[in-house]
Amino acid sequence: MNRKVNLLMLLFSLIGGAVGFAFGEWLLHSLLGEWPNIIVVGLYFGIIAFFIGLFCLIAEMISPRLNGSSWRQRYTGASWKLLVPATLVMLFVAGLALEFVYQLDIGGSKPVKDIALVIDHSGSMQQNDPHNKRYEAAKRMIDEMDSDKRVAVIAFDDRAELLQPFVLVKGQAEKDAIYAKMDAIDSLGGGTDIGLSLSETMKQIKDNEDTGRGTMVVLLSDGVSDLNTGQALAEYQQRNIAVNTIGLNLVNGDGAILLKEIASLTGGQYYDVTKADELSFVFNTIYSTIGDRTLITERTGPVKDSSYYMILRLVALTLIGAAIGLALGLVFDNRYLARSFAIGGAAAGLIAGALLETGLTGRPFTDGLCRLLADLVLAGVISLFTLIVPVKESYVPREERHRPGSAGRAADGLAERKQDSRSRGF
């Protein structure tokens, strides 16, 4: 048993991690939100493992420092056959399973999948938002929604007009249909009846209720309205539906008091806007806090600072790292390498999990750099860990196997090699 390292494998594993990262990022940007998260995350880890395994295999074929020259001469064919099932397939399954566990909602809370946009269309908005930028901001929010989200749009003054019942925004065609209805709204007029708008919104929520989908309301108004908050918000409180409020009032600041109270009583957030140009940013901020999470993206919403999900991410990445290390050992059919790589992978996964937990911010560029660093840590630490956990060549050269006392002729197949008592493979 020796402590040694293949520097060429270290270099190639880092290259493999970088190549896997590039393919993984393309996958995230193309499919996340279009495909189920557990499938996308499983594929992400499978791709990372495949490219790390591929480049490590090439490096050991060029310079068989860890597994021995006899492995290169006789058993590389078996390693190539094991590469895809041991890396891509195994890590896809492991990533899918761990992401499924990470997606479970603890404490009975439901992930927000339904969003009701309730927009003030009263006459006072002629002064607060004469160019109807609140509708443009709402459109941008809808444009960002994933295909599994449903949206409803209610415009109100002293009446409540249902512009769009809850509909699944599966694609651009559905979104364009919603935009057309918003563009066709009647001219401004009337007073401000927030109570009526909340009542109509709750009716739509109950008529389209789905036990597996959480609901959130975004209410934009100047806030100048008579409202019995206890009565108007009772059902929202019972159903744990947060009402996030946006105050756009350039004339009378008293409306902010009511909107703050609505948000506070329902567990929502109040956002004060002094310029209509700021509405798009506020809508985007609200959407980013609805509670989406995966093992490789920022955790948002009520569980953003959850210790449970923090620990779960660390544990999951530790297991992913160990699985990648074990996969490499399977590819080389060497139990000593499997042990060293798996222990190193667990350590690398813990570090990678800590990097993701502290480094993900929701900003695309910095999040990409964070994932790149985590992938490189996984690739590099696994390759270096043979300096800490000693390894041994799996295969004894043929001439040694024919010495007196040897168990006989070396076998070519995996099944036959098990009969050789001196074989050190799996």
From TrEMBL:
SMART domains: VWA. Residues 399-426 are annotated as: Disordered. Coiled coil: none annotated. InterPro entries: VWF_A, vWFA_dom_sf. Residues 114-286 form the VWFA domain. Gene3D superfamilies: von Willebrand factor, type A domain. It holds the Pfam family VWA. The chain crosses the membrane at residues 38-62, 82-102, 308-332, 341-360, 372-391. Keywords: Membrane, Transmembrane, Transmembrane helix. Residues 414-426 have a biased composition (Basic and acidic residues). PANTHER family: BLL2462 PROTEIN. This is VWA domain-containing protein. The lineage of its organism: Bacteria, Bacillati, Bacillota, Bacilli, Bacillales.
